[in-house]
Amino acid sequence: MTFLLLLLVAVVLGIIGTTADDLGYLLAVGVVLFVADVAWAVTTGSRRARRRPVR
């Protein structure tokens, strides 16, 4: 749920930053937020994928 919310915020900031005049920093913030969100999802997913050894 958090992943999708942050992804949506990054997309909205990117759209606002591209369409509005002199708001390029919002595009930069959106891109940074998107990259951080994807990195967080990859690290969280890799932790969940590990299996415990069978005893």
Description:
- The protein is mainly α.
- Helices cover 80% and strands 0% of the residues.
- It is built from two helices and no strands.
- The chain has helices at residues 2-19, 24-49.
- α1 runs antiparallel to α2.
- The longest helix has 26 residues, at 24-49.
- The chain is rod-shaped.
- The relative contact order is 0.15.
- The model has no long low-confidence stretch (mean pLDDT 80).
Strand count, sense and barrel status of the largest sheet are: none
Total helical elements: 2
Helix-strand category: mainly alpha
Morphology call: rod-shaped
Helix content: over 70%
Average of per-residue pLDDT values: 80
Intertermini distance: 34 Å
What portion of the residues fall into strands of 2 or more residues?
under 5%
Q: Which residues form runs of ≥5 with pLDDT under 50?
A: none
Tell how many strands the DSSP assignment holds. Answer: 0
C-alpha Rg, in Å? 16 Å
SSE string, helices as H and strands as E: HH
How would you concisely characterize the structure shown here?
With 55 residues, the chain is an all-alpha fold. 80% of the residues lie in helices and 0% in strands.
